[in-house]
Amino acid sequence: MKRITRAVAVAAVLALAAAACNANDKSASGGGSSTAAAEQGGTWHILTTSKEISLDPAKSQNLGISSIHLVLRGLTSWKTEQGKAAELVPDLATDTGQVSDGGKTWTYKLKSGLKYADGSPIVAADIKYGIERSFAPELSGGLQYHKSLLVGGDKYTGPYKGAELASVETPDDTTIVFKLNKPYGDWPWIVSMPAFSPVPKKADTDPAHYGEKPAASGPYQVKSYAPGSKLELERNPNWDKSTDQARTGLPDAIVLDMGLQPDVVNQRLIADAGDDKFAATTGTSVPAALIPTITGNPAVKARVATSPSGALEYLAMNTKRPALANPEVRKAIEYAVDKQAVQVAEGGPEYGGEIASTLITPGIDGYNKYDLYEAPPAGDPEKAKQMLAAAGVSNLNLVLAADNTTGLGVAQAIQQGLKRAGITVTIKPLDSEPLSDLITGNKPDFDLTVSSWLPDFPSAIGNIQPLFASSEIGNGGYNISRYSNPAVDSAIAAATAESDRTKAAGLWGAVDKQIMQDAPIVPLIYARNAFLHGSKVQNFYLSAYPPYPNQLIVGLSK
Hints:
Blueprint: H1 6-12, E1 43-47, H2 68-71, E2 76-79, E3 87-90, E4 98-100, E5 105-109, H3 124-133, H4 145-149, E6 168-172, E7 175-179, H5 187-190, E8 220-226, E9 230-235, E10 253-257, H6 262-271, E11 279-280, H7 291-295, H8 298-301, E12 304-306, E13 312-317, H9 327-336, H10 339-345, H11 348-351, E14 353-355, H12 381-390, E15 397-403, H13 408-420, E16 424-430, H14 432-440, E17 448-453, H15 461-468, H16 486-497, H17 501-516, E18 521-527, E19 530-532, E20 537-538, E21 555-556
Parallel strand pairs: 1-10, 1-11, 15-16, 15-17
Antiparallel strand pairs: 2-3, 4-5, 5-7, 6-7, 8-9, 9-10, 12-19, 13-17, 13-18, 14-18, 20-21
């Protein structure tokens, strides 16, 4: 997981080469639902701003419902249904994993008859090799979870000098065993990530260019690739639908039209002419400037897929700063913030997001709707003043570090809300990179900052651990409130180790409330995404999580 500002997230997150960790969302859960039946056949066009696309699983940070998974399969996969939470399902494996050794050993068996596009069999050694190459320094950039969990992963540097990773065992062609250094209940989600796609060693003759035409295990294979222009996918003749619960494989071909400007993408989809009737965007959200155009045209508005929820946008309070070290002061700020003004600054209820009060976001197991502080949406400045007075605090002056291109509107909304409670806020505008360096570094010279966060997979660990574990303070970590509570760290460890998902969800829900009692952040909104699609594109919708279209199930109508 990583922090991504709203502007970056809407433009890039599900482009094939982009990171998929922090994003924003848009509203109605019914937005973009099918009006006609999706049929077999046709060519689906994906309009993307990306200039380069790599299908190398070792370098990918893509969510489990994105384009790379049309070409590559993993041990497990994601299944989505409109209005429901994402479901983990077996993919190449026969089940979602058998756990032993107190949660530190996970065993998978492969389904029979699995083949690559060239007809050769998919074997366990190929998955092991694919994982091993993700450790190679020359193939950096992919998701990191498995690297810190597999025994010996901290010292392993990949297979290109002949070394193997002993904690990934393949006793036969259909069995793969993972040895972890600690119990980790969410391992079945980890093995759905791109790095767990099979890579036959014989096909990896040129690692730097493997992503241009990888060995296909999914319903499609690369037909052609012209960087900056077009990526064409055609059917994999050896993909067997009966072995695949996650993918429909409906279009005959998929074309990614690359290097487009965001306004061009949206204007083409609004026009809905020619091949664009069969087109969609999966990473370029509708900008605020186009909202009047869309809402004023019912035919266009019907082709906007919106998410009921999404990334948590929040105000982080630096608990190590003297002015904010007292929890009672932070609780006063919980009441002072005008969340409604933030919502308006981000586009209003329909396109900005729903007002938030929890750390775990809707669509993630463990989410329970509660509001510990029960402040009005526009804040309660009088109560905030009373709490500050009771804490012996007056003339509170705070510095709010904000992104100077995407965050000033929200920063000003927070500034005005706190002013009504007698709190003076000075906004410190920064470019995105210096801002990130400041808030994640070891000399955090700020009191407040606004951030947003979306997990890489649908588990509450992604909402909680990166933002509130003591281990994530400084050194590039995203515990930007500098919150440290040994009792919370212990609770995080217990929830992380629990392999029973129902029990784990209960543990995470309890941690959510435990942290909010200390008020290290103010939840602002569950941000929304909105993506346009052509009139012939079907099965194109957004869930609460992931708040992006599931590209594995999209089909077309005539």
